[in-house]
Amino acid sequence: MRNPRAFLRPLAVGAPAPLAEVPFKPSRMIHFFDPSNPKMADKVPSIASKVDIILGNLEDAIKTENKEAARLGLVEIAKNTEFGDTQLWVRINSLDSPWALDDLTTLVTEIGDKLDVIMVPKVEGAQDIHYVDRLLAQLEAKGDVQKPLLVHAILETALGMTNVEEIAAASPRMQGISLGPADLAASRRMKTTRVGGGHPGYLVREDPTGEDLTQGRTTYQQDLWHYTIARMVDACAANDILPFYGPFGDIKDVVACEDQFRNAFLLGCVGAWSLHPVQIDIAKKVFSPSPEDVAHAKEVVEAMGDGSGAVMINGKMEDDASCKQCLVMLDLAKALAERDPELAELYDL
Q: H or E stretch including 183?
């Protein structure tokens, strides 16, 4: 274990110094694309202008025979595209695969200054982050990369879930963590084949009101992922990094997708993955506070002054704790307003 003073020193001679704080940029959606698919590659410039984060996917969903083409395709796309304020991420192959090392050595040395975040799948403990941390420092030095690359872990196994707190604290490179519900469900031996979302069989039932136990008992579907998301959010918040919901696989069910994204937003996630363009607007809507919530937050903060004491607004008590909640809402609204003129007008900021 490094001492605290050494935590922010580069892990390789010539590498940039780690960041003391994770820079917060609007991150409502991480939009995935396949760099080996020419049709998808051609759409990157137009899609990049609509999303907060665009991610070249090298791992799952990329066929074995296309792995190298995807890697080289991302290099070409990065070199030939201006992303403006949109972040460019990559999801490398898992660390136990034969492609992960080449992913890192190629991408960092070729396009390290264009990349913002390296997403690492199936992280199971701090040891995985430590390996990537040291290797990135060596490659940054070799490639003369001027800014440190950040690392984003995917929570996809029961062991990773068990170690989520140590993963979140493993390195100053840690930018955040995403929930990977499909792989995590398999790892836990959960009996669902859905990629995210609920399940009609996971429910509670109203108590019986008479002797007939089969009649008149309302059921309520429950959230399979509530515990997992909440624990991930706590681990991220405790370490000043950002939590994300992952994929929602049923592209046609936009209603359930919006519900799942909103659950994650209310629990503290800053964004979610979008696997299809239809999910971009859903994420943009859900992970942007409503104008009504922003107006209420402004009213509370203005009434509270220095944040001490308590006031009554519309029949409700507002105090120091509620003022802090409102400041969270306003900070997010201001960050989004700087990126989105339409939201700036709606929020009156």
A: helix 181-188
Helix, strand, or coil (residue 312): strand
Q: Which among 88, 41, 30 is positioned nearest to 275, based on CA atoms?
A: 30
Can you say how many angstroms the Cα of residue 146 is from the centroid of all Cα atoms in its chain?
Answer: 24
| Cα distance between residue 124 and residue 164, in whole Å | 8
Integer Cα distance of 244 and 273 in angstroms: 8
The rounded distance, in Å, linking the Cα atoms of 254 and 279 is 8
- 203-205 and 219-221 as β-strands: parallel, antiparallel, unpaired? antiparallel
pLDDT tens per residue across span 64-93:
999 999 999 999 999 999 999 999 999 999
> CA-to-CA distance for 23 and 14, rounded, in angstroms?
22
pLDDT digit string (tens) for 277-298? 999 999 999 999 999 999 999 9
Neighbouring-strand partners of residue 188:
none
- Do 154 and 180 contact (CB within 8 A), yes or no? yes
DSSP 77-105: HHHH---TTSEEEEEPPPTTSSSHHHHHH
CA triple 31-111-180, angle to 5 deg: 35
Residue 308 corresponds to which amino acid?
S
Could you give the CA distance from residue 12 to residue 188 in angstroms, rounded to a whole number?
A: 38
Residues with Cβ < 8 Å from 105, sequence gap 6 or more? 139
**pLDDT tens digits, residue range 235-293?**
999 999 999 999 999 999 999 999 999 999 999 999 999 999 999 999 999 999 999 99
For residue 273, report the phi and psi dihedrals to the nearest 5 degrees.
-80, 145
Cβ 150 vs Cβ 174: under 8 Å: yes
